[in-house]
Write a structure and sequence with these properties.
mainly alpha, transmembrane helix, 9 helices
Length: 279
């Protein structure tokens, strides 16, 4: 009798343990890692970072021109100089351009599933921004300045001669994507145009002004540092507005909920919902 009672207690305890384990496994397996992005908060964060990077860059260059040399002065100024390459501001710009490419690719994929006929436009934009990120990382456009300047004998506003083919490409892209822009929701279309205008005004407009300034006063002065900071600031703000536009479009017009879910690979014969003890 006692043995039967002991057996019943043991079975009940085992069942409770299995039930608890099953509930735990179910809770764990149902969890997913979600990345939630608020367009407004993302924009505010990016603008805060942009303002900080440009202020630090200006301060660093000011110390180079107006303060005596001190330990790591030039090194620190170079790390945060928005007009330099392969430093913190350049990494930031490359990352945001790459993020735009990823968002555009995500939209293109969602549109493909929905069999939307404008998939090629989203895909093309993703490729364009991927190239811009690559160019930001390796300064491709900087490498054609000297050959073009020598070939075309440019100066003044066209001192940085890459703005000539750059302007042509911008015009061609605008013509190619104009019909696509017209079918976008009004808010998205307006934000795309605002972002593009700010970015192009910095990348091409300010670059031409900088070229004119350099042809008169050279590059090694605080005036040029201020102008290049305005150029990079415009480019960064333009990309930040574009990211805001993409996130807003994905959240409102597409009703797309972005999340990352990491699924567990089950071994053959393993029951669903049961966690393996092996990592």
């Amino acid at each position: 009798m006692q043995r039967n009672h002991y057996t019943d207690l043991k079975q009940a305890s085992q069942e409770q343990l299995e039930n608890s384990d099953s509930l735990l496994n179910s809770a764990v397996s149902s969890r997913q890692l979600e990345i939630r992005l608020s367009p407004r908060r993302t924009l505010r964060f990016l603008l805060f970072v942009i303002l900080g990077l440009n202020l630090v860059s200006l301060i660093g260059q000011w110390t180079q021109y107006f303060l005596p040399d001190y330990f790591l002065r030039d090194r620190l100024a170079g790390i945060f100089n928005v007009d330099a390459e392969k430093n913190i501001p350049a990494f930031y710009s490359m990352s945001t351009l790459l993020f735009c490419s990823i968002l555009l690719a995500t939209i293109a994929y969602a549109k493909k599933i929905a069999r939307n006929r404008y998939v090629p436009y989203w895909g093309a934009l993703s490729i364009i921004f991927l190239y811009l990120a690559w160019d930001e990382a390796f300064s491709i456009h900087e490498q054609i300045i000297e050959p073009l300047r020598s070939t075309l004998n440019t100066n003044s506003f066209f001192h940085f001669a890459w703005v000539i083919p750059g302007s042509i490409l911008v015009l061609l892209c605008l013509l190619a994507f104009w019909g696509f822009l017209c079918i976008l929701p009004k808010k998205t279309r307006r934000l795309f145009l605002v972002a593009g205008t700010i970015y192009v005004a910095g990348a091409l407009g300010m670059e031409m002004i900088n070229g004119y300034y350099v042809s008169l006063y050279g590059q090694q002065n605080m005036g040029y540092a201020i102008l290049t900071t305005l150029e990079e600031f415009s480019e960064m703000v333009g990309i930040a507005v574009f990211i805001y536009a993409l996130l807003s479009y994905m959240g409102l017009s597409m009703d797309l909920d972005l999340s990352i879910r990491i699924l567990k690979d089950r071994k053959q014969g393993e029951e669903p919902g049961r966690l393996s003890n092996q990592l």
